[in-house]
Specification:
6 helices; mainly alpha; Arc Repressor Mutant, subunit A
Length: about 140
């Protein structure tokens, strides 16, 4: 997998989230999602296109290539696991957990992600076996 900057991973993840319905992502929607300018988005889109991770035709939607989709899914999965861990295990508020997951996802190892997933699953399994009874 390609090594991308945090910023490029965020753009890729935003394109992934915005294009889940099978339609491409518009530059204006990507910019709005990330809270950046269209000019910054156009620059990032050009970089991702050069790396072969997206297909971008002028004045059209942006689409992920198979390599881009794989990398975007990988990043989104890390984000999801971290967010779930923060909320489920540490009881962090969803908005804070989402923001923190976005920052952590770029630097965390797969060993840590796998450990988090395993911990969450064991936690859920344990709570199924011994449900808390309300008084």
């Amino acid at each position: 997998m390609q090594n991308l900057t945090f910023t490029m991973e965020n753009y890729l993840e935003a394109i992934y989230e915005l294009s889940r319905d099978g339609k491409g992502a518009r530059v204006s929607d990507i910019a709005a999602r990330l809270g950046v300018t269209k000019a910054s988005t156009n620059s990032a889109v050009a970089t991702l296109s050069e790396k072969g991770l997206i297909v971008n035709e002028k004045y059209k939607e942006v689409y992920l290539t198979p390599a881009g989709l794989e990398l975007a899914e990988f990043t989104a999965n890390k984000h999801h696991v971290i967010r779930q861990f923060l909320m489920t295990i540490l009881n962090i508020e969803p908005i804070v957990a989402d923001k923190d997951a976005c920052a952590i996802e770029h630097v965390i190892s797969m060993d840590s992600i796998n450990a988090m997933q395993e911990f969450i699953q064991n936690y859920k399994d344990k709570n199924k076996e011994h449900p808390v009874r309300e008084k």
